[in-house]
Amino acid sequence: MASHDLTTGASSGLSIETKSIHAGEPRPRPAGAVVMPIYQSSTYEYTGATDYHDVKYIRLNNNPNQLALNAKIAAIENAEAALVAASGMAAISTALLTVLSSGDHLVALDCLYGGTHGFVTKDLPSFGITHTLVNGNSAEAWQAALRPNTKAFYVETLTNPLLQMADLKGIVEFARAHKLVTLIDNTFASPVNFRPAERGFDITLESCTKYLNGHNDIVAGAAAGRADLIEAMKRRLDHLGGTLDPHACFLLHRGLKTLAVRVWHQNESALRIAEFLHKHAAVSKVNYPGLAEHPQHARAAELFHVNLPAQRQRNLPPYQGGAQGGGFGGMISFELHGGLPAAEQFLSRTRLATVAVSLGGVETLVVRPAAAVHSNLSPQERAKTGIADGLIRLSVGLENTDDLLADFEQALAGRAHR
């Protein structure tokens, strides 16, 4: 029988549902409390630490709430170690500034989240770090981008907002062959559907604001992966100051406990909604890896451990297999016949979906990326990456799927122009 060290996160053999509840919890329980308390203290008694980074102080990322989260997230990701941060961008920027220095070169996907794109293209150059953006499915492009000073390859599991899926297996092999550090933003998939550390990625990045917390009430981020890289990140984050405060830690800790059941529902609901949109006469294009028409559908099914025949048996639980099973995620993007005016009409007519940025929470959210999350890209940059002005991004929440379908049907009424 496998042993499970739940206090450190070394809990291989347990399902993700069990890890999300029990991994990282302190033993013995503080004062017998079943729920992790909030340690609202900025400093702690000195116990003889000789290394600055080991002094017990909230900014140094060793508050009990932070440590418990680090262990829980490492277990959920099946990674050696993890580190929480004050936001997803705090985790992303710290990771990049940990593995890259002045004079180094980064290879990254050519379709990135707007905040990441801005940091890579506008901020990293000021640190003397250059970059090349590449097609995630072209080994020839990766080879052409390679330079003697290339140190890392940055990708996203599913790109934001077009839901593309790069050749992740090929990228890991390429990076290993050229001794590059691999970093992957796994926010859209979540560790329920995909755990990059199991596939050889060095650093997994999560915006915990999204699925890991799941309630649209905090901002947080995390990195998980190789212990040496996470320790180096901690030391960099200690100086940058992007620390997650104890109360936000408490909320994220609580949110993580329902991660699996939330994402399984969102997987199933999003698949049904994507199928509905794909068949609707008012819709011109749907981006969702669970559709057979998606160019990387087979790749997503393989990497996300989806049993394609079983997932469509609606009378069964959506995804069988616990820690071994997954789904295609809760994110969809689509375009309507009629372009921007049609998109704006849809957004104004929906009743259950809130027009707002962010994603992964219990509430269904819709947004037009060109006007919000990718507004920092120029029209030319958005056009180059395929982000149309009328593109709508949909984050499926936990509402009843039939209620959402009825709402989208009425919002699309009168838009059938095919």
Written overview of the protein:
This protein has two domains: about 15-255, Aspartate Aminotransferase, domain 2 (3-Layer(aba) Sandwich), CATH 3.40.640; about 260-410, Aspartate Aminotransferase, domain 1, CATH 3.90.1150. The strands form two sheets. The chain has a seven-stranded mixed sheet, with helices on both faces. The protein has a five-stranded mixed sheet with strand order 8-9-12-11-10. It has helices at about 15-20, 65-75, 90-100, 115-125, 140-145, 170-175, 190-195, 225-240, 245-255, 260-280, 295-305, 310, 340-350, 380-385, 400-410; strands at about 80-85, 105-110, 130-135, 150-155, 180-185, 205, 220-225, 285, 330-335, 355, 365, 390-395. Helix 1 packs antiparallel against helix 2. The protein has 15 helices and twelve strands. The protein has about 425 residues and is an alpha/beta fold. It is globular and about 70 Å long.
Spans of at least 5 consecutive residues with low confidence: 310-324
- Overall 3D shape: globular
Taking all Cα atoms into account, the compactness measure Rg is 21 Å
Q: Which oligomerization state do the chains in this entry correspond to?
A: single chain
Strand portion: 5-15%
Which percent range fits the helix content? Answer: 25-40%
The CATH class name of the largest domain reads Alpha Beta
CATH architecture of the largest domain: 3-Layer(aba) Sandwich
Mean pLDDT across the residues is: 91
Separate helix tally? 15
> How many domains make up the 3D coordinates?
2
**N→C terminal distance:** 59 Å
Number of strands: 12
> What are the secondary-structure elements, in order, as H or E?
HHEHEHEHEHEHEEHHHEHHEHEEHEH
Q: Report the CATH superfamily of the largest domain.
A: Type I PLP-dependent aspartate aminotransferase-like (Major domain)
